[in-house]
Design goal:
Layout: E1 8-10, E2 15-23, E3 27-34, E4 39-44, E5 61-62, E6 67-70, E7 91-96, E8 109-111, H1 114-122, E9 127-129, E10 136-138
Antiparallel strand pairs: 1-6, 2-3, 2-5, 3-4, 4-7, 7-8, 9-10
Length: 151
């Protein structure tokens, strides 16, 4: 999804941070697993220097609608924190997992997210920027009943 560097990235579904950090192809990236462990969301090419919400780490709980990171153009480099992509964009993916053999390897099931993204565009979570911290957060603080604490 094309956009400007620094555009807030919103969690599609509540879950926990399973992967966070640098990947030579995806740059700064996040992977969030749904609580039922049947969906995995991949957010890649995040912003250089400040890619994620400051509170996130592996195992963090996020709620659908939380600001989790910021759009950028990192990746395609073994050197961490490198902008090697000309057009800023978010690489967004959704993997379906019916059993653990589908998590990695030749049995992965990744879906085309186009229709989901169109739906989310119509129902997006509004964000606001804190001028002091320059951090974005959601405007409406809704609570997912499956989450005891969010970002």
């Amino acid at each position: 999804m094309m956009g400007q560097v620094g555009t807030p990235i919103i969690a599609v579904e509540s879950g926990y941070v399973e992967a966070i950090g640098w990947n030579q192809y995806g740059g700064w990236r996040l992977g969030i697993r749904s609580f039922d462990k049947k969906r995995y969301y991949y957010y890649a090419h995040l912003r250089k220097n400040y890619p994620y919400h400051k509170s996130l780490k592996a195992g963090s709980i996020v709620q659908a609608g939380d600001v989790i990171g910021y759009l950028g153009r990192t990746g395609y480099s073994r050197t961490e924190n490198t902008n090697n992509i000309e057009e800023p964009h978010l690489h967004f993916g959704m993997q379906l997992i019916f059993d653990e053999s589908q998590k990695d390897g030749n049995h992965e099931i990744w879906i085309n997210c186009y229709e989901i993204v169109k739906f989310l565009q119509l129902n997006r979570s509004e964000t606001v920027k804190n001028p002091e911290t320059r951090e974005y957060s959601r405007v409406l603080d809704m609570k997912d009943p499956a989450v005891s604490g969010g970002v």
